[in-house]
Amino acid sequence: MPETDFDPERSIEMQRSPEFQRLRRTFMTFIVPLTVIFLAWYLAYVLIAGFAPEFFATRLGDSYINVGLLFGLAQFVTTFTITMLYSRWANRVYDRQAEPLREQMELVVPAGSR
């Protein structure tokens, strides 16, 4: 089996390629909005808990369930939903675009042949 080694120049060249830049843009246009939305939602939860605890203490009907409990559970639901959305998106879009780049980077280059 031929010996191979890491080539930083090849890696930098790949990162500068239009294909890689397009892949990065695709990733960022999906991730940034979801991250901003989730952080805003989480910050709202923390701020309401800190500054309006009476709102979170509001009971729903005659049960032990209150608004704060529902908000807390919604945080978990949101986290799992975002995870599922990302996984489906990555499988459908991102991985398909990344595959040719991965294959190109994994091409065996014999050590010392550059």
UniProtKB/TrEMBL annotation:
**Entry-linked InterPro entries:** DUF485, MFS_trans_sf
Q: Which UniProt keywords apply?
A: Membrane, Transmembrane, Transmembrane helix
Superkingdom of source: Bacteria
Keyword Zinc among record annotations: no
Does the record's keyword annotation contain Transmembrane helix?
A: yes
The membrane-spanning stretches of this chain are: 26-52, 64-86
**Full protein name:** DUF485 domain-containing protein
Name the source organism.
Answer: Agrococcus citreus
